[in-house]
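2.7 Reproducibility. Because tokenized structures are sensitive to small changes in the input, we list the exact sequence used for 1-acyl-sn-glycerol-3-phosphate acyltransferase, including any N-terminal residues retained from the expression construct. No trimming or masking was applied before prediction.
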Amino acid sequence: MRIFRSIWRSLYLLLLLIAARLDGRFFSRPRMGAEGAIWIHGWSKRIVRAMGIEYSVGGNLPLSGAVVSNHLSYLDILLYSAIAPFVMVAKRQVRSWPLLGWLTAQAGTVYVERSEDVIGRKRQTHAEVNAQMAAAYASGLPVLFFPEGTTTDGMQVLPFRRGLFHSVLNDEVPLRVATLRFELGEGNGAATVGEDVCFVGDALFGPHIFRFLGLRGVTAKVRFGEEIVTRSDRFVLSQGAQARVAEMVMQLGQESGAVEALHDLLDGPVKRVGAFDGYRSVRG
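Resulting structure tokens (single pass, no recycling of outputs):
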């Protein structure tokens, strides 16, 4: 059954990507910055739904400024884009990925290089990166980046790389935090969030996404936190943001544990109602 689900969703996803390509080439003609981010927002909602992901959102959506989040998978960009228009910041390798490469390029994504990824050619200068980030902030939309610099299995939040925090301080941009957590329902055999939802280690994109599309009951929880106001320098700012994101990750884990305990106590499903917990849920 799982293999048939993977095949069906793969075909559906391929059709959506073809439709998005045609839309971007002949109709919408998305450009860089805010227009591209708004364009990809609509398509991301369709793609996330086609992938079978349900998600809930808590906290107040940022309307501008910078937002930093923990990083679990290539799914993160699609999920945040489905929630609201964001100007994304991603490592340059994403541009060459199937699926995400073309989509992120159309969405006005800012691509940055990590020093260890630049071999045998000139790397981006700090001035070039800061100029790109300043243009992103000037778009009027919130700018989202993942300062861990790599994906994890969600068990911890790595130290934040400080490079992009310089642009936050340089342009006097408000900084808020966000947290993402994936969960997996029953009926998926030996599949786990860490290996089959998160994209870490030496995993290959093609096999991973095919396995992922066969999963059932994938849910994502996204929470937006408050502004980080202690910002005397980029060291203090990055450390404060990382500590708050790590705290929110722990809170999401405790929240999930409490819901599971209540599920076991009642011996039945617990339905989360928006009016009760202040979150809005979206069926993927």
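The chain is about 45% helix and 15% strand.
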